[in-house]
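Dig into what follows:
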Amino acid sequence: MSLNIKDLSIIFALEEDPTISITDLAIKLNYSRPTIKSRIEKLKAAGMLRQPIALIKPEKMGLKRKHIFASVPNLEALEKLERSGDIHPYTRYRVRTFGGTFGMYMQYEIPPSTDSLLREFFQILKEKDVVENFKIYSSTGLRTVSYPNLDKFNQEDLTWKFDWESWFNELKNSSYTIKRPKIEEMDKSNYKPIHLNILSELSYEDGTHTQSELKEKFKLSKTETHRQYSKVVDQYVDRFRLLYDRKSFNLTESYLALANLVDNKTQGQIYNQVLENPPPFHFRTDFLENANLIMWGNMSTSQADQFAFSTWKALENVEIYVLSTQGSRSRLYYFHPNNFDFDKHDWIKTREYIVSDPIKELEI
């Protein structure tokens, strides 16, 4: 399917707000409602536009995001490490990495008191020769995200008008003061099974998403479905992520930069630069404990090359990872409601649940 300017504007507007109604989208883009509806249906039928999924703010739910970088000795070990991610109840994301070494970048969202258990889990994987080495980083909860900007995209030659070196050079003009958003942790005693079950469905691409489908699945009235759905979206969901075919926009490369020992001033400048002058790609940052920083995104081949060398030039102690996001080599996991113990009104934190059971199921 060839894309025209209407398709491009619809996709990028949906990425910015995946839950926007067709009526509001028509008003925003100044297209007719039938045009919007028809184009969306054709994009979905062609496999270029898929169901948006819900992402949670882990800190709001009393969880902590952990970033793991693991190297592996061989392909067999890499496949076992992928399976460990599939098995572990608190895995959020995994993707193969290559470049200097082969391995995997993973995200876990775990109860804060279980740091040592996650480390023990990976130490056992190391002793069993599944991983050679691993590093674990903790998120502070401060993050940014930017979305593709159609104004920077030339549809005729599929190029993006953006220069990473200039972007990094402009850091010196950015403020280094960070206004950290206040994150209020939810009262776990108010959690209800229906809330977490709906959240699980919304976070799974093949799950149940529309209110009418949720009504049938959970046997609720129309009024109750709307009430529970609205509560989940308002209180549990951080944002929705649109899934679409990036090849059509020459956004085929996924690169990640891990910068260590980034001083507070530089961190603040990067934070404000992303907010005030965001790269025109799906680009994310996560500010980590102990002066560390992660930046990653989807971009064109030429932009990825610029990103790697410009980051290396701008920041000391930086590691660049190429992410292999094709097919099963990359996986975003849906929210697991069974991780919460409703009898204790808390997340399951036992060694058996976080270490022993996953290792046993992995059969190594």
Remarks:
- The chain has a mean pLDDT of 91.
- The two ends are 46 Å apart (CA to CA).
- The chain is about 35% helix and 25% strand.
